[in-house]
Amino acid sequence: MKRREFLRQSARVGILTAMAGGVVLLASKNRIDWTCTENKTCKACTKYASCDLDQAIGNRKNEKG
User: What is the pLDDT of residues 12-24, one digit of tens each?
Assistant: First the structure.
């Protein structure tokens, strides 16, 4: 392997490792906000019918039942 290819490959692997580590770090510290960003009230949200959040699913089940 040539020196230039080695350096490029090393940089790519380093960047991917840093990105994966950042995702793990943020997820482990719970800094990623998994809440709906469209609207604070579920029923007024434009994505309410197809939303996969537990709160929206629970609200839809309560409406049917």
Answer: 999 999 999 988 8
**Domain membership of residue 62 as a residue range:** 34-65
H-only helix segments in the chain:
3-28, 54-64
Cβ contacts of 16 within 8 Å, gap of 6 or more: none
Looking at the structure, do residues 38 and 25 belong to the same domain, yes or no? Answer: no
pLDDT tens string 35-61 = 655 545 666 677 777 888 887 777 777
Q: Give the separation between CA 41 and CA 31, rounded to whole angstroms.
A: 21
Q: Are residues 28 and 38 in the same domain?
A: no
